[in-house]
Amino acid sequence: SQQGEEDPQALSIQEGENATMNCSYKTSINNLQWYRQNSGRGLVHLILIRSNEREKHSGRLRVTLDTSKKSSSLLITASRAADTASYFCATDADSNYQLIWGAGTKLIIKP
Amino acid sequence: AAGVIQSPRHLIKEKRETATLKCYPIPRHDTVYWYQQGPGQDPQFLISFYEKMQSDKGSIPDRFSAQQFSDYHSELNMSSLELGDSALYFCASSLGRSSPLHFGNGTRLTVT
Fold it and tell me: Are the Cβ atoms of A97 and B106 closer than 8 angstroms?
Protein backbone atom coordinates (compact mmCIF):
# COMPACT_ATOMS: atom_id res chain seq x y z
CA SER A 1 0.00 0.00 0.00
CA GLN A 2 1.16 3.51 -0.68
CA GLN A 3 1.68 5.76 2.29
CA GLY A 4 2.51 9.02 0.61
CA GLU A 5 -0.05 11.66 -0.10
CA GLU A 6 0.56 14.62 -2.29
CA ASP A 7 -1.30 17.83 -2.75
CA PRO A 8 -2.48 19.38 -4.79
CA GLN A 9 -3.45 16.59 -7.17
CA ALA A 10 -3.19 19.07 -10.01
CA LEU A 11 -1.69 22.52 -10.33
CA SER A 12 -1.90 24.91 -13.25
CA ILE A 13 0.15 28.11 -13.21
CA GLN A 14 1.55 30.69 -15.60
CA GLU A 15 5.07 30.41 -16.89
CA GLY A 16 7.45 32.32 -14.64
CA GLU A 17 5.44 31.73 -11.47
CA ASN A 18 6.58 29.48 -8.66
CA ALA A 19 5.03 26.06 -8.12
CA THR A 20 4.79 24.37 -4.73
CA MET A 21 3.85 20.75 -4.20
CA ASN A 22 3.47 19.01 -0.86
CA CYS A 23 3.98 15.46 0.27
CA SER A 24 3.00 13.79 3.53
CA TYR A 25 3.98 10.37 4.76
CA LYS A 26 3.21 8.12 7.70
CA THR A 27 6.27 6.32 9.02
CA SER A 28 9.83 7.26 9.90
CA ILE A 29 12.11 7.46 6.92
CA ASN A 30 15.75 7.36 5.88
CA ASN A 31 15.22 9.79 3.06
CA LEU A 32 12.59 11.33 0.83
CA GLN A 33 13.00 11.61 -2.92
CA TRP A 34 11.24 13.63 -5.59
CA TYR A 35 10.79 12.40 -9.13
CA ARG A 36 9.38 13.92 -12.30
CA GLN A 37 7.51 12.01 -14.97
CA ASN A 38 6.64 13.28 -18.40
CA SER A 39 3.59 11.65 -19.90
CA GLY A 40 4.24 8.03 -20.85
CA ARG A 41 7.91 8.22 -19.94
CA GLY A 42 10.04 6.87 -17.13
CA LEU A 43 10.42 8.71 -13.87
CA VAL A 44 13.44 10.93 -13.46
CA HIS A 45 15.05 11.47 -10.09
CA LEU A 46 15.19 15.13 -9.10
CA ILE A 47 16.46 15.39 -5.57
CA LEU A 48 16.99 13.33 -2.42
CA ILE A 49 16.78 14.76 1.07
CA ARG A 50 17.93 12.74 4.05
CA SER A 51 16.01 12.54 7.30
CA ASN A 52 18.61 14.69 9.09
CA GLU A 53 18.39 17.45 6.49
CA ARG A 54 15.81 20.22 6.53
CA GLU A 55 16.33 21.91 3.19
CA LYS A 56 18.07 21.18 -0.06
CA HIS A 57 18.53 23.08 -3.31
CA SER A 58 19.23 21.99 -6.84
CA GLY A 59 19.04 24.66 -9.51
CA ARG A 60 15.48 26.00 -9.52
CA LEU A 61 14.35 23.29 -7.12
CA ARG A 62 14.06 23.72 -3.38
CA VAL A 63 12.98 20.86 -1.15
CA THR A 64 12.14 21.09 2.52
CA LEU A 65 11.59 18.27 4.96
CA ASP A 66 9.80 18.48 8.29
CA THR A 67 10.12 15.12 10.02
CA SER A 68 8.05 16.27 12.99
CA LYS A 69 5.10 16.84 10.64
CA LYS A 70 6.10 14.01 8.33
CA SER A 71 5.88 16.30 5.35
CA SER A 72 7.97 17.67 2.51
CA SER A 73 7.51 20.35 -0.08
CA LEU A 74 8.98 20.82 -3.53
CA LEU A 75 9.26 24.37 -4.82
CA ILE A 76 10.01 25.04 -8.47
CA THR A 77 10.93 28.66 -9.01
CA ALA A 78 10.53 30.63 -12.23
CA SER A 79 8.59 27.81 -13.86
CA ARG A 80 8.99 26.98 -17.53
CA ALA A 81 6.74 25.19 -20.00
CA ALA A 82 9.19 22.27 -19.91
CA ASP A 83 8.40 21.78 -16.22
CA THR A 84 4.97 20.47 -17.21
CA ALA A 85 4.94 16.92 -15.84
CA SER A 86 3.74 14.82 -12.93
CA TYR A 87 5.79 15.04 -9.76
CA PHE A 88 6.01 12.19 -7.27
CA CYS A 89 7.50 11.98 -3.82
CA ALA A 90 8.82 8.66 -2.56
CA THR A 91 9.98 7.73 0.91
CA ASP A 92 12.62 5.24 1.85
CA ALA A 93 11.77 3.57 5.13
CA ASP A 94 14.16 1.40 7.06
CA SER A 95 12.43 -1.92 6.62
CA ASN A 96 12.88 -2.96 3.03
CA TYR A 97 13.91 -2.08 -0.49
CA GLN A 98 10.50 -0.75 -1.36
CA LEU A 99 10.07 2.97 -1.89
CA ILE A 100 6.66 4.23 -0.86
CA TRP A 101 5.19 6.52 -3.48
CA GLY A 102 2.81 9.41 -3.28
CA ALA A 103 -0.06 9.73 -5.72
CA GLY A 104 1.65 12.53 -7.61
CA THR A 105 0.90 16.13 -8.53
CA LYS A 106 0.16 16.94 -12.13
CA LEU A 107 1.76 20.30 -12.91
CA ILE A 108 0.79 22.29 -15.97
CA ILE A 109 2.73 25.40 -16.89
CA LYS A 110 0.79 27.69 -19.18
CA PRO A 111 2.89 29.72 -21.63
CA ALA B 1 25.89 7.90 -19.68
CA ALA B 2 24.28 4.50 -19.95
CA GLY B 3 20.66 4.33 -18.86
CA VAL B 4 18.28 1.54 -17.97
CA ILE B 5 17.21 -0.23 -21.13
CA GLN B 6 13.84 -1.92 -21.41
CA SER B 7 12.44 -3.99 -24.21
CA PRO B 8 10.15 -4.14 -25.93
CA ARG B 9 8.88 -0.56 -25.91
CA HIS B 10 5.37 -1.65 -26.80
CA LEU B 11 3.68 -5.03 -26.57
CA ILE B 12 0.22 -6.12 -27.57
CA LYS B 13 -1.07 -9.45 -26.31
CA GLU B 14 -4.39 -11.21 -26.13
CA LYS B 15 -6.07 -12.42 -22.96
CA ARG B 16 -4.58 -15.60 -21.55
CA GLU B 17 -1.35 -15.15 -23.48
CA THR B 18 2.08 -14.77 -21.90
CA ALA B 19 4.53 -11.88 -22.08
CA THR B 20 8.16 -11.43 -21.18
CA LEU B 21 9.60 -8.00 -20.47
CA LYS B 22 13.31 -7.42 -20.32
CA CYS B 23 15.40 -4.93 -18.39
CA TYR B 24 19.09 -4.10 -18.61
CA PRO B 25 20.14 -2.05 -15.58
CA ILE B 26 22.86 0.55 -15.48
CA PRO B 27 26.24 -1.20 -15.26
CA ARG B 28 27.42 -1.80 -11.69
CA HIS B 29 23.99 -1.12 -10.22
CA ASP B 30 23.25 -3.88 -7.77
CA THR B 31 19.50 -3.48 -7.32
CA VAL B 32 16.71 -3.85 -9.88
CA TYR B 33 13.07 -2.97 -9.36
CA TRP B 34 9.92 -3.62 -11.36
CA TYR B 35 6.94 -1.30 -11.23
CA GLN B 36 3.50 -1.28 -12.82
CA GLN B 37 1.78 2.00 -13.56
CA GLY B 38 -1.81 2.30 -14.71
CA PRO B 39 -3.12 5.45 -16.44
CA GLY B 40 -3.03 8.40 -14.05
CA GLN B 41 -1.76 6.22 -11.22
CA ASP B 42 1.37 6.26 -9.13
CA PRO B 43 3.90 3.46 -9.70
CA GLN B 44 2.99 0.22 -7.98
CA PHE B 45 5.97 -1.75 -6.77
CA LEU B 46 6.05 -5.33 -7.98
CA ILE B 47 9.36 -6.89 -7.03
CA SER B 48 13.04 -6.13 -6.53
CA PHE B 49 16.35 -7.92 -6.71
CA TYR B 50 19.59 -7.21 -4.92
CA GLU B 51 22.67 -8.89 -6.35
CA LYS B 52 20.48 -11.30 -8.31
CA MET B 53 18.51 -12.42 -5.29
CA GLN B 54 14.90 -11.41 -4.76
CA SER B 55 14.98 -8.77 -2.06
CA ASP B 56 11.41 -7.58 -1.71
CA LYS B 57 8.01 -8.38 -3.08
CA GLY B 58 5.16 -5.99 -3.57
CA SER B 59 1.81 -6.32 -5.27
CA ILE B 60 2.97 -8.81 -7.87
CA PRO B 61 0.24 -11.27 -8.93
CA ASP B 62 0.97 -14.96 -8.68
CA ARG B 63 0.66 -15.09 -12.47
CA PHE B 64 3.79 -12.98 -12.71
CA SER B 65 7.33 -14.00 -11.95
CA ALA B 66 10.68 -12.34 -12.32
CA GLN B 67 14.30 -13.18 -12.11
CA GLN B 68 17.69 -11.55 -12.44
CA PHE B 69 20.36 -13.32 -14.41
CA SER B 70 24.12 -13.63 -13.98
CA ASP B 71 24.69 -10.66 -16.31
CA TYR B 72 22.34 -8.62 -14.07
CA HIS B 73 19.62 -8.22 -16.65
CA SER B 74 16.16 -9.00 -15.37
CA GLU B 75 13.01 -10.40 -16.94
CA LEU B 76 9.41 -10.09 -15.86
CA ASN B 77 7.31 -13.02 -17.01
CA MET B 78 3.57 -12.56 -17.14
CA SER B 79 1.20 -15.44 -17.80
CA SER B 80 -2.56 -15.81 -18.25
CA LEU B 81 -2.75 -12.14 -19.13
CA GLU B 82 -5.88 -10.26 -18.18
CA LEU B 83 -7.29 -7.00 -19.54
CA GLY B 84 -6.39 -5.36 -16.23
CA ASP B 85 -2.72 -6.07 -16.81
CA SER B 86 -2.65 -3.36 -19.46
CA ALA B 87 -0.27 -0.76 -18.08
CA LEU B 88 3.18 0.73 -18.29
CA TYR B 89 5.81 -1.52 -16.76
CA PHE B 90 8.94 0.17 -15.57
CA CYS B 91 12.25 -1.25 -14.56
CA ALA B 92 14.58 0.80 -12.40
CA SER B 93 18.03 0.21 -11.00
CA SER B 94 20.08 1.71 -8.21
CA LEU B 95 23.48 1.41 -6.64
CA GLY B 96 22.71 0.27 -3.15
CA ARG B 97 19.56 0.78 -1.19
CA SER B 98 18.53 4.29 -0.15
CA SER B 99 19.96 5.53 -3.45
CA PRO B 100 18.01 7.25 -6.19
CA LEU B 101 16.32 5.00 -8.71
CA HIS B 102 17.11 5.27 -12.39
CA PHE B 103 14.12 4.32 -14.50
CA GLY B 104 13.90 2.94 -17.97
CA ASN B 105 11.35 4.33 -20.39
CA GLY B 106 9.03 1.44 -19.75
CA THR B 107 7.17 -1.17 -21.71
CA ARG B 108 3.60 -0.35 -22.59
CA LEU B 109 1.62 -3.58 -22.43
CA THR B 110 -1.82 -3.68 -24.01
CA VAL B 111 -3.93 -6.77 -23.43
CA THR B 112 -6.87 -7.15 -25.81
Answer: no
